[in-house]
Design goal:
With 294 residues, the chain is an all-alpha fold. Helix content is 71%, strand content 0%. It has 14 helices and no strands. Helix 3 packs parallel to helix 12 and helix 6 packs antiparallel against helix 7.
């Protein structure tokens, strides 16, 4: 996720980034929908939604104000030069950077929970939630149907007791993944290609997890458990990576710059998560600690 949001890498390898954009966040949305327990009590739901909404608002404000004041100096691709009303409008309707994921999840989870608890459960509840979310996507710029689809697929899998880490896992998933890329002309989330790439990539990851050494598997799981910290903090550090890019001018491929930036950003994200936990800021902002130990 981090590597493919780096501007220079994106510019150098636009086709690769387009392919990755087709499935990487889609997988997160699908898994988020699958893991969501809709039958929790209102108090527990409000606590979990607090842990999404408040961090989203806080970090979106920090990010927008940051690019507004320093965007031109650091060469940020996103800009912000509006006032308080524009800021509120961005938060409610048009999130900037990777924070759209938290914005989308907050809305999807809330709609599905309310419908399931107070209107109708099961497949009918999922259908009603889908219609409501589709209607909202028309009026809310940052809420895109192409992303909602994957949340819905996730909750459908859970409703059907479809154990994704077992049923999707296959040793030929990577072959199917490559064939889809080779024979596809269009790469977008709201397409059969997008769904196919997302499902086959997840199948490959689930299969790979059982084949790689346990030490590597544990490290990957560690990064996965800290994905919220990376989502929250990475945009704040991604925007400054262009500053030191001239020092890597000798590498025309930008691979070394990308690897260094990836290591730096992830390290800083984890360090910030640890610091926020120690200062109790995590509990204030998200209701719980952000950092997950190795």
């Amino acid at each position: 996720m981090v590597a493919f949001h780096l501007g220079l890498f994106n510019t150098k390898y636009p086709h690769a980034c387009q392919i990755v954009y087709t499935f990487h966040m889609s997988g997160f949305l699908l898994i988020s929908g699958y893991l969501f327990s809709v039958n929790k009590e209102p108090k527990k739901f409000l606590k979990s939604i607090y842990g999404i909404v408040v961090p989203y608002i806080v970090f979106e404000i920090v990010y927008l104000l940051g690019v507004g004041m320093l965007g031109k100096f650091i060469g940020a691709s996103n800009t912000f030069d509006g006032g308080a009303l524009t800021l509120l409008s961005n938060i409610a309707f048009s999130p900037t950077g990777t924070y759209w994921y938290l914005h989308t999840m907050a809305i999807c989870l809330t709609v599905y929970y309310i419908v399931n608890r107070y209107v109708m459960k099961g497949l009918s509840g999922i259908l009603i939630s889908s219609v409501i979310l589709f209607a909202l996507s028309i009026g809310i710029v940052g809420l895109k149907w192409e992303n909602i689809i994957y949340f819905i697929i996730g909750i459908l899998f859970r409703n059907a007791n479809f154990v994704i880490n077992e049923r999707l896992k296959s040793s030929i998933s990577i072959l199917c993944f490559v064939l889809i890329i080779v024979f596809s002309n269009e790469f977008s989330r709201d397409s059969i290609t997008g769904i196919g790439l997302t499902l086959t990539f997840l199948g490959f990851i689930f299969d790979l997890k059982d084949r790689i050494p346990k030490l590597i598997s544990n490290f990957i799981s560690y990064i996965g458990r800290n994905s919220l910290a990376i989502v929250l903090f990475s945009p704040l550090f991604t925007v400054v990576t262009k500053i030191y890019a001239p020092f890597f001018a000798f590498d025309d491929s930008t691979i070394l710059w990308t690897l260094f930036s990836l290591f730096l950003i992830v390290s800083l994200c984890l360090s910030c998560a640890i610091l926020f936990d120690k200062l109790s800021l995590s509990r204030i902002i998200g209701g719980k600690n952000i950092y997950a130990k190795l």
